[in-house]
Request: fold
Amino acid sequence: MSFLTVGHRGVMGVEPENTLRSFRRAEQAGMDQIELDLHLSKDGALIVMHDADVDRTTDGSGMIRDLTLEEIRALDAGRGERVPVFEEVLDAVDRPLQAEIKDVAAARVLAGVLRERGVQDRVSVLSFHDEALAEIHTLLPGVRTVLVASDLGPHIVPRAQAVGARLVSLDLTQLNLDTVRRCHAAGIDVMAWSVNSARDWALVRALGLDGAATDLPEEPAA
Reply:
């Protein structure tokens, strides 16, 4: 594949993360894909938020799983933005999406939305949770799955293979050339997160990576 530049939670370095404002800004900046995070609300809505609680990124408090969509809708996610649901992001931007499952229970709901909306080709499903990716791979075998990991031991390749992932998204601070070579030898592409400084981008190039997730709308000058 050609090098993939991914907007991390939109462009969270300059806009409120995981909001429609941030996703639209990432699209305007020309990102190849846009990454977002998913949890389930108390009433089963696919809430776009990184943390398991709303405390850090909104003016509210509490666990997402304990709040209804209506309660979450009432919160300010920054600059007057509301917390979106996944379906709204599909409608708000045209770029391909990387949807990261944070709550394993969201896998089945996400699969249903992808099938219903006919967007299996537009959305890649990411997760740290092997079981979530395995469920997606079983329910929708054609959807691209991406294993996210910070522990890059020798098991990374068989883990990716077990969930049908042809791309892994790895912590740049933990990456080394041996890991990249092992993945590439197995036909698995490698992208890194989070890549924000000129030094980060230089390392991405030196390692021969296939993509990078960034918080910023423009790549720093080398």
The CA atoms of residues 16 and 78 lie 5 Å apart. The chain has a mean pLDDT of 96. The first strand starts at residue 4 and ends at 7.
